[in-house]
Structure formats: C-alpha cells, structure tokens
Amino acid sequence: MQDPFCNEEAYSKTVFYESDYFRVLYDLRPVIRGHVLFVSKRHVTNLLELNNEEIGDLHKTFMKVIPAILKVYGATDESYDITSQIGPYSGRTVPHLHFHVLPRSRSDEYQNEEKNIFDDLKLNRTHFGASDVETEVKKLRKEFGYKPKTK
To answer: What is the C-alpha to C-alpha distance for residues 97 and 50, in angstroms, rounded to an integer?
Structure first.
C-alpha cells in the first residue's frame, strides 16, 4: 500500500495548519465533524522514532491546534478523543505516524451506548461526503490563516 502521507497530492487539499515537523489536516473520512489528523512530515511509523525537536514541535502543535478545534466545533467541556494506532498489531491502516483528534460534545451520536466511535474509526466509516470535507477544510483554513502552497 502506498503511504498517502508521503504523497503530497493525496493530502494537500485537506491541510489547514503546518508546523516545522507536522501537518494538520482534516480527515478525508471523518467519523464526526471536526475529525483531524496530526501527521509527521518525516516518514516514521512509531512515536519512539521522533527526535527531541519533533517531540517539542508536536507538543507545541497540539497546544495551538486542539483548543481551536474544540472551540470551532463546540466540544462540550473541552472533551475530545486523541488516538494513534502504532505498530502492526494495533489495527493501524497507514504505516506513517499520525494522531486522530476528535472533538466531542454532549450531543454527538456516540453518546448512545449502541454506537462506539472507535469501531467506526477502526472500520474507516464516515457519515460525511466530499463536499462536507471541503466545507470544513475551508472553515479551518480561514480559522488558522492557512494558505495552500501554489505550484
């Protein structure tokens, strides 16, 4: 399988924030509105492969982007899920280090005991179409003042 995070064409339409070592993009198959990914620019498969500068940059990026995502998507009481599947037995589908951040609210559909957000995440289920994703990317690019690079 080709790594989509090493293929600029695959992710460039959904990037809304970049730091020195990470890109933040809207998930192409979001489980809930506001589902974003923090992706290492350098191809690594494991958190333990990051150097000190990358770890510091990841922390700084989390601290800048997550509060804004929570505000934009009305996360109740600053609730969110953050997860990453690392290693071949974790259920990962893309062998490139990335973190899912999902803003949560009292009214999201996963408050119902019959629905499990991690089942949908693992099975790559989405309730949103391409136009929904495009709308959310535009909103986040405006929020973060991100201008895509032109070729």
So the answer is: 10
Q: Is 38 exposed, middle or buried (0-12, 13-18, 19+ CB in 10 A)?
A: buried
CA atoms of 76 and 25, how far apart (whole Å):
22
Give the model confidence (pLDDT) of 79-129 as tens digits. 999 999 998 888 888 899 999 999 998 888 888 777 777 777 777 777 788
Give the CATH fold of the 4-144 domain: HIT family, subunit A (3.30.428)
Phi, psi of 114, deg, nearest 5: -75, -15
CA nearest neighbour of 17 among 58, 76, 75, 48: 58
Average pLDDT, the chain: 90
Q: What is the pTM of this model?
A: 0.89
Alpha-carbon dihedral 15, 28, 74, 96, rounded to 10 degrees: -70
Distance separating alpha carbons of residues 15 and 23, to the nearest angstrom: 7
